[in-house]
Design goal:
Shape: globular
Structural class: alpha+beta
Order of helices and strands: HEHEEEHEH
Radius of gyration: 16 Å
Helix content: 10-25%
Number of helices: 4
Largest sheet: 5 strands, mixed
Strand order of the largest sheet: 1-2-3-4-5
Distance between the termini: 41 Å
């Protein structure tokens, strides 16, 4: 089993991989059967930050420079492919004296890897990471059919309405 922070020597991670080692997994609120964790996501799998080799360099550098993106991926080392990803975005809230608010976005697991608890692993990891980064709260948006899934992690439905306006497809 490869360690969680394994990256190729010429790859630059989006954030310090050691922060994933430092998460207090005992604070995780959901169960995994079979047991998996950031340090042991499953046979042939590695949980790590997104790296330069995974993405267009310009896009990667823009996100890395901001310091507020924690794109976390699960790589299948046998295939050499990313099979799951999720993003924690940190906002600095003016109305809360620049306190940090975390937001989980884009939890995606490839079709062939669904049922292996990778979405649960990523959501648990990013929830704990937001706490480690001293966010005063963390939010996410999901379809009504996914509400019960996220309740397992301690999330509750807000009374606020989520509204949007789309400018591009």
């Amino acid at each position: 089993m490869m360690p969680v922070a394994t990256v190729m020597p010429d790859d630059t991670p989006m954030f310090d991989p050691n922060i994933l080692h430092e998460l207090d997994w005992s604070e995780n609120t959901t169960t995994f059967s079979p047991a998996i964790s950031p340090l042991d996501p499953g046979d042939g799998l590695v949980l790590r930050p997104l790296c330069t080799a995974d993405l267009n360099r310009e896009t990667f550098e823009h996100m890395k420079r901001s310091g507020d993106y924690y794109v976390t991926v699960v790589e299948d080392t046998n295939l050499g492919q990313i099979v799951a990803t999720a993003t924690l975005v940190i906002e600095h809230k003016f109305t809360h004296s620049c306190a940090k608010r975390g937001r989980i976005e884009d939890v995606v697991v490839s079709g062939e890897c669904r049922g292996r608890q990778l979405g649960k692993l990523l959501t648990s990891t990013l929830t704990l990471l937001s706490k480690r980064l001293n966010c005063y709260k963390i939010t996410l948006e999901c379809l009504p059919k996914n509400v019960d899934f996220y309740k397992k992690f301690g999330y509750s439905v807000s009374e606020e309405n989520y509204m949007f306006q789309r400018f591009f497809n």
